[in-house]
Amino acid sequence: MTTVQLYTVIALCAFAAIMFIIGCISYRKSKTLDHFLVGGRNIGAWATAFAYGTAYFSAVVFVGYAGQHGWNIGIGAIWIGIGNAVLGCLLSWLLFANRTRKMTKRLDAKTMPEYFEKRYDSKGMKILASVIIFVFLVPYSAAVYKGLGALFSAIFPGVETWVWMLIIASLTAVYLVAGGYVATSYTDLVQGLVMIVGVICLIIAVLNNENVGGLAGLIENLKNFQSLPGDPNPVTGEQLSDIFGGSSFRFLCVNIMLTSFGTWGLPQMIGKFYAIKDTAAIRRGTLISTIFCLVIGCGAYLVGSASRLVLGGQLPEGGIDSVIPAVLLKVLGGDTVGIILLAVIMILLLSASMSTLEAVVLTSASAVAVDLIPSIGRKNIKPEKKMLLTRIFCLVFVACSFIFATQNIPIIVSLMSFSWGVVSGCFIGPYIWGLFSKKITKTGAFAGVISGLITVGGATLAISLNSGFAAAAAKSPEMGVVAMAVSMVVVPVVSALTKKKDCQRAEEIFQCYNEE
């Protein structure tokens, strides 16, 4: 075993022990369904802020997006991180956190499907939302394994990737099944601290690399960069050093909109607002979460933008997904301090992956156990049995995501690229308008969900028939952005054209904003 491998194993064991202890402690605090799903609506600012941020950024962001966009676009890719922090985090907290907390508390809604059912008095919306979450979020969770597996395989070349995937699944299952949201909020706080330390260390190590030459040298060296002969993805120094992304400006804008506004309709992100305890915690959480996202998001894309310099313009053997792993080994694989930092970075990426996986799995499991089964099967399931079902389905969905990731099933991999846009495109309109307007009707909300689904599904079918599914997959960011816009427009328009049946009920619901 090499020194790098030894330090990584030690760090991994220490991390696993901490997660196990948190799971055991949280088990005693998760005896009711309310505590298991939303932490008894008593989670503080720091835990909620870190839960939001860690669910936002997984290893896919570092290894996949940051590596790919940094390599191909250059310094302009940092705007994605800035957009995520300002639009996807700050604006989301300012606009929706307090309203979501108050309304879901008034409605006693613990999940997104339950919010739709009680806000619009529609069991059909609850069932439809549950199915959408099940179909698109579970396959999406399989992508979490992909980014981390590439890095662990680079450090442990003799170990199969599925072994690392199994470790991620097992660790996540232990504390998630034991402590539910309470456990995830505590672990997210620990994982968030690890992520901040790891990213700061990584930024310092990359900027100190002789080929980069600090922050000032980064811009200058990117400007003078020349692609190697035979480079499959040649790019000019002018492109890499353009702060606005050069020829990739439109691509940047689309990705910023998808990955930033997309969080406004994702149930695993919105669910964090259900659990925060009061308005004061929201004010603090807004600042904490925004700073966290700035550090993590901008740090990841900054490292990606320096990748061509660090690697001398040579794309690693594993392709674009191996860019960040190769950068890490290059800048940290030397002396003992560097190796220790590399172990910290490994735990950073493990933390990022597990926090995203836990959020998606808890959302998916509750959608089936709490929302779908009682709606189409037995009507009066006791809360204790619902909680047991949720724990069981957490295990089931962790297992499913692991199996999907190891099998490389083509249709599952394709679903991953569409899930963000589909889910947010379906939910963003009914969710946001439901918080702000008493005039939204059940028909309007239903139309918003269906329109988002049809927008992505129709565009995918049309492009696939004309140019093949690969062309449709390449257009998935644009489809997601359009679906979100369509949903936001369709909901109020259809509501204006349909009659609201129970105005008094809406008045009573909106009284929650006059209360603390």
What keyword list fits this structure?
single chain, 22 helices, Hydantoin permease, mainly alpha, 516 residues
Report the principal-axis shape.
globular
**Name of the top-level CATH class of the largest domain:** Mainly Alpha
Rg, alpha carbons: 22 Å
Determine the fraction of residues in helical runs and give it as a percent range.
Answer: over 70%
Derived structural class? mainly alpha
Largest sheet: none
CATH topology of the largest domain: Hydantoin permease
Count of spatially separate domains: 2
Number of E-type strands: 0
The H-and-E topology, N to C, reads as HHHHHHHHHHHHHHHHHHHHHH
- Can you name the CATH architecture of the largest domain? Orthogonal Bundle
Number of helices: 22
User: What value does the average pLDDT take?
Assistant: 85
As residue ranges, the low-confidence spans are none
Span between N and C termini?
58 Å
Bin the strand percentage: under 5%
Q: In a nutshell, what does this entry contain?
A:
Helices cover 79% and strands 0% of the residues.
What can you tell me about this protein's structure?
This protein folds into two domains: 406 residues, Orthogonal Bundle (Hydantoin permease), CATH 1.10.4160; 107 residues, no CATH class. It is 79% helix and 0% strand. By secondary structure, it is mostly helical. The chain is globular, with a radius of gyration of 22 Å. The chain contains 22 helices and no strands.
